[in-house]
Amino acid sequence: MNMNRRRFIQASATTAIAAALPLIHSPAYADTPLKVGYVYVGPVNDGGWNTAHEAARQQMLKELGDKVTSTYVASVNEGPDSERVFRDLANQGCGLIFGTSFGYMDSLMKVAKDFPNIKFEMCTGFKKAPNVANYNIRFHEGRSVIGTIAGMLTKTNVGGYLATFPVPEVVSGINSFQLSAQKVNPKFRTKVIWINTWFDPAKEADAARALIDQGCDVMTQHTDSPAAVQVCESKGIPTFGQGADQSKFAPTMCKTSTEDQWGPFYISAAKDVLAGTWKNTDEYWGMKEGAIQMAPITNVPDNVKAAGDKIIAGWKDGSYNVYAGPIKDQKGNVKVAEGSSLSFDDILGLNWLVDGVDGNMG
Amino acid sequence: MKLKLEKRPEPSRLMLYASPVGAVIVTMIVGAIIFSIIGYDGLGAVYQVFIAPVATSYKWSDVAIKASPLILIGVGLAVGNRAAIWNIGAEGQYVVGALAGAGIGLLTQNATGPWILPLMILAGIIGGAIWGAIPAWLRTSFNVNETLSSLMLTYVAIHLMNYLVTGPWKDPTGFSFPQTPLVTADQTLPIIIPGTQIHLGVAITLVIAVVMWLLMTRSVFGFQIRVVGSAPQAARHGGFSHKQTVWLAFLLSGGMAGLAGIFEVCGPFSQISLGFPQNYGFTAIIVAFLGRLNPLGVILAGIVLAITYVGGDMAQSALQLPNASKGIFQAMMLFFLLASDILVRYRLRLVRRAPAAVSATVPERSAA
Amino acid sequence: MSLDYLIAVLITVVGASTPILFAGLGELVAEKSGVLNLGVEGMMLIGAIAAFATVDQLGNPWLAVVAAAAAGAAVSMIFAVLTLSLSANQVATGLALTIFGTGLSTLIGNNFTGRAIKTFEPLFPAALASNPIGRVVFGYSPLVYFSFIMVALVAWFLRGTRAGLILRAVGENDLSAHSIGYSVTGVRYAAVAFGGAMAGIGGATFPLVLTPLWAEGLTGGRGWIAIALVVFAGWRPVWLLAGAYFFGLLSTFELYAKASGASWTSILPSEAWAALPYLATVVVLAVISASKQAGGNAPACLGKPFIPSA
């Protein structure tokens, strides 16, 4: 019984303090360092998606020095778990919180409603609120460099694409790969396998093998582990890394990798909050803004490297757009007419595959 | 002089209730030591994982909503396990229950009225029960080991969920994200404690747990379950059909798991997405055992496990303690509990060299 | 469908089947002695990280196999002490072991994520494996050949040796075996350790043969398949080999069917194909369990604690 009473008193005291906390932490962040919270969907050393976010967080810390402090929570499941973590970060006094997986969107929106003074940034999301902004990278720009190289290197004219679930980001990657490859190689086709799991390296490896055995002589993937990249190295199939430089897993076969650079955006968002100029506009950055860059293109003939570099330059100066019309879907319908191009909203909600892709949507 | 295990004349009630508590405490001590050795702040880790969620009042809500599905599924499993029926497929029944309820939800998206939520809940129970009926049928008709069949069906259930969520049930306004539409206001479980996330499902779970306890201790059904589990021969003589017990156990635990699933859909999740399965069905097995297969004990055990989940997050953000530490603490609690189990039926005695003429009882064939 | 293609498929199937074959063999022996150890997934993960860490640090894949076996056996001892010496419930203890093994392997593995390792040098000279037929026979990782050897060894042990007879006796009627003078607990400890070692090697197959990397949860639930396979196989090693390959074939089939883009594969959604191996297992279990003659019954003492009279 003593235990209960002691606990009760302690709990009441804690409640009183917790209730007072919001009053102590006033929204004037100018004098105290801005606390920035990050929520990651996987481990920070996965060598891909989460590693890139963590590296960017470190860049922000370095750039902004003692104006910010920061913390992160990793391997957080989407759903109520993430809601709890967002609330926790909010209660700890964060002024800016980043959610780095699309699965967090609805949980983040719920918490954002309860903490109107805190700014929330949702990665690859789309819902709107006064204190919520979405941010994203134009991954298709990177995929088009890969597609161009693949289109030039292939001899069988069939490229393999290992995909997980048919979410727009993945679909856009496939479409961009195919479109850019067929621009340099009109006979190019892409075979897609959906492995329907976010994480199973052995299955990824088997799926890569299946694609290769089916005649794909270039491969790329949109998975969370480098398993497929390793299979390609062992079979001598040119491949490409994703999220970060994965050439250490395939020293001769990994021709380049897309490297997600969230750093410039994180720095910019934190600066805006510090200066009080933060707005809830959605940001969709690409090569021009330095949000995505390619690892050096290696182990390919000079003309292939030159072609790849040209695509990169083309995105930066606006002369290249893989999504410029005409674009047909798999049934032959013209989805984008000549002279126009897919809008950002279209790309963000892409749910159809272009002509030249073999495989259904999931 | 040696340590000998001597059978107690009857199981020690003290040890029965003390051992789970002891297991938790020993876990805290051993955990602190181990994590200190591998380079983390051991005491801090234990504090964050076990104490902080209790000491921080705004965390109670999190603990409650995390504990609710664990308790609900755990109670169902506890009943089955008492009858020596091992339902390892609760996770699959949870998912199918959620799907069944969500399906009704999709059909009634544009309707309003107070009848929608109860209908979804009913569908959830039935969905889970049906998924639990399959292993029951396989066991009673083909003698298939229910542990294996229920487990295999879990994978099938998850694939079914993936298909529905990425295909026919995807939110058409949702930018192709693999998730169902959000539940409507009429389909949401009301919050019963304002200012928290504690929803009606939490209260219903507690009521069900108490009801199941009454049922297990005071009804013929409860008696049947316990006798079938501990003395199958006697059960047959008493007219209790094993087959019927298998059906009852699976329908009950399946239904409860399904109910937990639909509560999550109409409560914390507000939809079904690819990340919906949270392994509650497996964690609930630990909860059932830690609660000594007694519905009231399951309530406490569910709260303890929920505390470790919530505390695990807190330890991560406060100390950068790795996420995997949660599983280690949870497993340790179960290990220590199972280790101390024997002290309920046996006591340690220091005996001298003389051969001990211990009770020559017929060895038990208990599976508990 | 060229010969090359079929052989490529076969090689992938062999790769997919080997880990569950190892783990299944170990569990089979443990269950033959009367112990039901559901901790296979946890032990496989421990074996996988032990193997990865060994190769990463010491560079020797053979040593890694030994390390994996030792680690798997060591961690199985937690289970053994709890269930054999302290009469704890085997189902619960096995589950706790799975959770523990998963968490521990992740914790240790945190230091090793994002690294790549070298695996086995080919066992046979490259010339032997240069033509298609040669590849089918000679083109596998040493662990694959080892798995076949183990099937034969286990089958011979159980049927043709005295020790195997004792083990089976302990599993069928522990009281009689005890009264004859055999140490039931001792035999079971050994069987559980063997099960742990084999599960460890099964887990090691992932980084050493299939995907030379570490990631948390690398085994992707194969441990549970291995447990099902033992029942599937009626507790007979040679049937276990068939079952493991059947399962491997089904899993691989799904991927190859999708890759081939053949239109008939789209009659079912892709998730249905993914679920197929599990459904097939349930169906086969039903057929086997219903027929009492097929494949031999479960060891009579499976899952029950041994409590001798004084």
How would you describe this protein?
The complex is a heterotrimer of chains A (362), B (368) and C (310). Mean pLDDT of chain A is 87; it is low at 13-30. Chain A is built from eleven helices and 15 strands. By secondary structure, chain A is an alpha/beta fold. The longest helix of chain A is centred in the N-terminal third of the chain and has 23 residues, at 2-24. Chain B has 368 residues and is mainly alpha-helical. Chain B has one domain (14-351): ABC transporter involved in vitamin B12 uptake, BtuC. Chain B is 68% helix and 3% strand. Chain B contains 13 helices and two strands. A two-stranded antiparallel sheet of chain B has the order 1-2. In chain B, helix 4 crosses helix 10, helix 5 (116-142) packs antiparallel against helix 10 and helix 7 packs antiparallel against helix 12 (295-319). Chain B is globular. The relative contact order of chain B is 0.21. Chain C has 310 residues and is mainly α. In chain C, helix 3 (61-85) packs antiparallel against helix 4 (90-109), helix 6 (142-160) packs across helix 7 (162-172) and helix 6 packs antiparallel against helix 11. The longest helix of chain C has 30 residues, at 3-32. Chain C starts with a helix and ends in a 20-residue tail after the last helix. At the B-C interface, helix 5, helix 6, helix 11 and helix 13 of B face helix 3, helix 4, helix 10 and helix 12 of C.
